[in-house]
Amino acid sequence: MQHIDIREFLERAPDHGFPLDYLLSRLRGRRSRLITDWGILAKSTSPMEQLTPGHYQTVFGISAPDAAWRALMAEYRWGYHQMNGPVRKTFAPFFLYGELRTLFICLRYLRGLMRDRLQEILSVSLLSVAIRDALLRSSDELSAAQGIEKEFLCLSCRFKGLAETLRHAGLNDFEQKLAEIFLSVIITTGLDPFLKAFFLRIIDARNILALAKLLKLGETLEHPFISGGKIDAVMLRDILGRRDIQTADKLVMGFTGEKTSSANLSGLEISMYRGISRWLKKKSRGSPGTGLVLDYLWKCSVEAMNLNILSYGAGLHRDVIAAELVR
């Protein structure tokens, strides 16, 4: 496949030419502000109010329903603007993958006729002007999906017909298909080796989770696992067809480094995130440039996910919330 500059899908920003060492120095300072003790927040009845002054997640307050995600996008935006052109080119696939969630949120806002919130979240997004305009011009979620399909066809013809998924199968299936096609396409676009290894882990994680869900549901039909991962899709379909839970559990343990049953779906997803975090921490030591930047960006995304869980689970028992957090 022709190598495509993924920066075309993101906003154009002036290149100040900051060297990578400058970026790493700034990230070291910001890394020190990341939350390390989730136990205190998990026990608090007002966890968002416990954030230290100056923490980037406090910028949007504690009441907005998408506050944690908007803060994460603002942090990513800050990081992107600190990068020089070559570093941006390296990390553009990661930022665009992160922005898929922005697209999903926008589609839900359009379905709920909440255009004011649509504009708010797009104000901190890194999406290109063309994609943002396509969303803002859309009258409903279907027209927005058609606009998204049109833009992503520039990346691959595999996105053709994507909007029809929303029409015939609904929003959840559209979101899943968009993410899966993106992942299978992005690993063919000449990624930095470290970024490619990261995306292969994401593909494997999603495929293992899909396998676990299908096994729990008792499904044995052939499933379109995401292509391109390190775990062969043929093997996954074979495990599914034989309903081989023991082998599925071995896959889980090999990926996460934890003895987690594939039948425990909520615990499995958390273990997957922990497994990726451990892998990044270990591998980033051998890649002091790309690896350290990616490790920071990933930690920010996990932090946002945890804060979102704390925010939405305010009325639940503290032990239940604590079990859902990725540490």
Number of helices: 15
Give the SSE string.
Answer: HHHHHHHHHHHHHHH
As a percent range, the share of strand residues is under 5%
Question: Structural class, from helix and strand content?
Answer: mainly alpha
In angstroms, what is the radius of gyration?
A: 20 Å
- Mean pLDDT, to the nearest integer, reads 89
**What is the terminal separation in angstroms?**
38 Å
Instruction: Detail the poorly predicted runs.
Output: none
Count of domains: 2
Q: How many β strands by DSSP?
A: 0
Helix content: 55-70%
> What is the overall shape?
globular
Biggest sheet descriptor: none
Polypeptide structure, described:
This protein is mainly α. It folds into two domains: 63-186, no CATH class; 192-327, no CATH class. It contains 15 helices and no strands. It has helices at 20-31, 38-43, 67-82, 85-111, 115-122, 129-137, 141-152, 162-169, 171-186, 193-217, 233-242, 245-256, 265-284, 290-312, 318-324. Helix 3 (67-82) packs antiparallel against helix 4 (85-111) and helix 10 (193-217) runs antiparallel to helix 12. The protein is globular and about 55 Å long. The two termini are 38 Å apart. The model has no long low-confidence stretch (mean pLDDT 89).
